[in-house]
Amino acid sequence: MTITTCVFDAYGTLFDVAAAARQAASEPGREAFSKVWVKVATDWRLKQLQYTWLRAVMDAHTDFWTVTQNGLDYALAANNLSDDAELRERLLALYWNLEAYEEVPQMLKDLKSAGLQTAILSNGSPDMLSGAVKSAGLKAHFDAVLSVEDVGIFKPATCVYQMVCDRFSCKPDEVLFVSSNGWDASAATKFGFQTVWVNRSNEAQDELPWVPQSNLPTLHNIPDLAKSL
User: Fold this and answer.
1) Residues 112 and 201 in one domain
2) What would the pLDDT profile of 157-192 be if each residue is shown by its tens digit?
3) 8 A C-beta contact, residue 84 and residue 76
4) Are residues 110 and 184 both part of a single domain?
5) DSSP 86-111
6) Rounded CA gap, 184 and 202, in Å?
7) Angle subtended at Cα 212 by Cα 204 and Cα 207, rounded to the nearest 5 degrees
8) 121-137, pLDDT tens digit by residue?
């Protein structure tokens, strides 16, 4: 089946989720934070994801901005930084303007030049996603930006992936789904998408029955892969 639509997770896939902590650590007066920013960024991301999973299985949905703040509060507490209210506000402000990975703009241009439809499918709330896409100058490269807020549950719920087929009137195997989260790529594989795990950190494959068809270190080769399927 020919690929007609390329769909991307947002955070960690198109946008560097560590960028907020990295930038804050480079600012004057944050010498103490600069020593622990990598761990804070790692703890923040892990808890952000864990809280989405827990809320999904407990049927206690909230918006992604809430779990983003909850994850940061945990990370700051775990690194003895709970009392630094100014740092907290700075990190949250920076999260609205995350950097896109360097290969993203050209990769998206190449997909559009090839006549493919493109979209984001994300746990992010619509306002967060709009801010990130606008800040990165990517708005013109997407046909749709889909948020789980439309179905009221986080990934990997099946109804989230169904949003793509409903929006583009396509079959699952016409979609190339790309995520930096192995569990997300596995769930999309189970749904029936063609899948890519963008494994930037060279992590081990999750022990799940559904294995992404491709494992790539970056997004550079996505256009060529989409053409070959």
Assistant:
1) yes
2) 999 999 999 999 999 999 999 999 999 999 999 999
3) yes
4) yes
5) HHHHHHHHHHTTPPBPTTHHHHHHHH
6) 16
7) 45
8) 999 999 999 999 998 99
Same domain, 104 and 217: yes
How would DSSP label each residue in 157-217?
-HHHHHHHHHHHT--GGGEEEEES-HHHHHHHHHHT-EEEEE-TT-PPPPS-S---SEEES
Residues forming the active site: 9
CATH number of the structural domain spanning residue 78? 1.10.150.240
pLDDT, tens digit, 9 for 90 and up, residues 17-60: 999 999 999 999 999 999 999 999 999 999 999 999 999 999 99
- Rounded to whole angstroms, the Cα distance separating 132 from 211 reads 29
Q: 173, 115, 119: which is closest to 142 by C-alpha? A: 119
Looking at 76, 95, 114, the residue that finishes a domain is 95
- Choosing from 71, 95, 119, the residue where a domain stops is 95
Residue with tokens 């560097």: 16
Structural domain of 55: 19-95
